[in-house]
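Sharing a chain and its predicted structure for anyone who wants a worked example. Both blocks are below, sequence first, tokens second.
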Amino acid sequence: IAPTSYFVSKMAREGMLKELDHSKLPVLKELDPNMLDRPFDKGNKYSLPQLFGATGIAYNTEAQDPAKFRSWADLWNPEFKDKLQMLDDPRELFNIALLKMGKDPNTQDPKILEQAYQELLKLRPNVLAFNSDNPSNSFISGETEIGLLWNGSVRIAKNEGAKIDMVYPQEGTMLWIDNLAIPATAKNTEGAHKLINYLLSADVAEKLTLQIGYPTSNLKAMERLPKELTDDHAAFLSQEVIDRSQWQLDVGDAIDVYNNYYQKLKAAK
């Protein structure tokens, strides 16, 4: 299975994952140390990283000036009424409000979440659509000029000829990794370890990144990728952006608070 960052810690806590046997994962030595031992799985006890992701503000380069998007707060500009595409995910929406407010984007504090919800209500008139199913498509078709996108989605849109680029605001963004893990119910753990080795191998990792745009964890594969791709800081974040960003973490039972406010937010317009 391929859980994203905070789902690894959530699933491990709930006993849903098997511990990995690192002696059966020789591919481990090819993986980027910067993607290992992250807060959601210290020591990579339950998972190994596959792809690196982040969320930014995507914009049509022919219609929008990137200078308009220096801060997350800029999305609240009344100029963007009915123009923004948001990712259809409560954590993504609350992340930008909490970063705008200077609060912890992984907060579990209900009072702070209520404040963030009030901020998002002010943003609601600017939201044209919520879309996490192939969100790059609306940029490719020209239906959308501004919105939240994942780094790989921007690359997909560029590959389709869309005039698009990405800004990572001054407050930083949220970082995540899609990982490979073995469910606790797996019967063939030997085969599962072999599959992880295969999926993370340089040959497979290179092909995957070329196809979907997300940076791979395999350093050998990274060396083979075209410079045009690895120099694209919309997809391959600069170290400066990474340094001012944070990892998305499990918020425990507070996810119910996020979800409840999110449903109210979507119904508010």
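Comments welcome. Strands lie at 47-60, 84-86, 127-130, 146-150, 164-167, 174-181, 246-247.
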